[in-house]
Design brief:
Blueprint (H helix, E strand, L loop, with lengths): L2 E2 L26 E2 H15 L6 H8 L3 H8 L2 H15 L2 H9 L3 H15 L10 H4 L9 H28 L8 H20 L4 H11 L10
Antiparallel strand pairs: 1-2
Length: about 220
C-alpha cells in the first residue's frame, strides 16, 4: 500500500522555510491511505453515516482533520469512497453469484446463502453497509440516503434482468412475475441483513435463505 504524504502550507514544492530563514511548521506524519479508508469504512458500516462525526473518523483513521480533508475531501465524499470500498471488498459476492450461476434461481439461491456468511463475518460489523448505513439519516443527508437507495434498486434490477432472461429462454414459467420475484429476493436479502444486526447467526440465516427459495417457481429445464 502506498503511503500518502501531505504537506500543509506548501505550494508547488520548494522548502518549508519562512522568509526569515527559520524553519516553518514540519510535515504532518505520513499515513497509509488504504488503511485509513478501511478504518473509515468499518466505522460507517458499524454506526451508519449520520452517527459518525469528523472527530470519530479522525480518531479511528489516526489522522488529523486537515489531513482527512486533503486526502479524502469532506465527510460525504469519504463516505462515498467507503461505500465503493465496501462493495468491492464485501459486496462482490452478489454480482459473482448472478454472473457465474447458469440460472437466475441458482444465482439468487447462491447469493442468499453466501449473504448469510458475509453478514455475519467474524471481526466485522454485521449486516450490509449499503442497507444499514442509511439508518436515521436526516433531511440534511437526503442525498446520501438517495445514493444508497439507488444502489439497492440497481441490485433489484440486476436480479430482475436475470429472471426475465430465464423466462425468455424457458428456464422459468412464462407467467412468472419477474418484478415481484426480484423485489421479493431483494427483500429477503435486506431482511437477512437486519436479522444479522439483531444477532441471528449464520446457520439461521442459511436456513432462511433455503426457505425463501421455496417461493420461487421451479425451473422448467434443469
Amino acid at each position: 500500500m502506498d503511503a500518502t504524504n501531505e504537506r500543509t502550507g506548501e505550494r508547488g514544492g520548494g522548502d518549508l522555510s519562512t522568509p526569515s530563514g527559520r524553519k516553518g511548521r514540519g510535515r504532518p506524519r505520513s499515513f497509509d491511505r488504504d488503511a485509513a479508508l478501511k478504518a473509515a469504512t468499518l466505522e460507517f458500516w458499524e454506526r451508519g453515516y449520520e452517527a459518525v462525526s469528523i472527530a470519530d473518523l479522525t480518531r479511528v483513521m489516526h489522522i488529523k482533520a486537515p489531513s482527512l480533508y486533503a486526502a479524502f475531501g469532506d465527510k460525504k465524499t469519504l463516505f462515498e469512497e467507503a461505500v465503493e470500498a465496501y462493495v468491492r471488498d464485501f459486496g462482490g459476492f452478489i454480482g459473482r453469484a448472478l454472473e457465474e450461476e447458469p440460472t437466475a434461481r441458482r444465482g439468487v439461491a447462491r447469493l442468499l446463502r453466501e449473504a448469510a456468511g458475509w453478514h455475519t463475518l467474524p471481526g466485522h460489523p454485521r449486516g450490509c453497509m449499503v442497507i444499514t448505513a442509511a439508518v436515521n439519516c436526516t433531511a440534511q443527508s437526503a442525498d446520501v440516503l438517495q445514493g444508497l437507495m439507488e444502489r439497492r434498486n440497481e441490485g433489484t434490477e440486476r436480479i430482475e434482468r436475470r429472471i426475465r432472461a430465464d423466462v425468455a429462454s424457458g428456464e422459468l414459467p412464462a407467467g412468472t412475475d419477474t418484478h415481484a420475484l426480484a423485489v421479493y429476493s431483494q427483500a429477503v436479502l435486506q431482511g437477512m441483513s437486519q436479522q444479522a444486526r439483531d444477532g441471528a447467526g449464520r446457520a439461521t440465516l442459511e436456513a432462511v435463505a433455503e426457505i425463501a427459495m421455496g417461493a420461487w417457481p421451479q425451473e422448467d429445464r434443469l
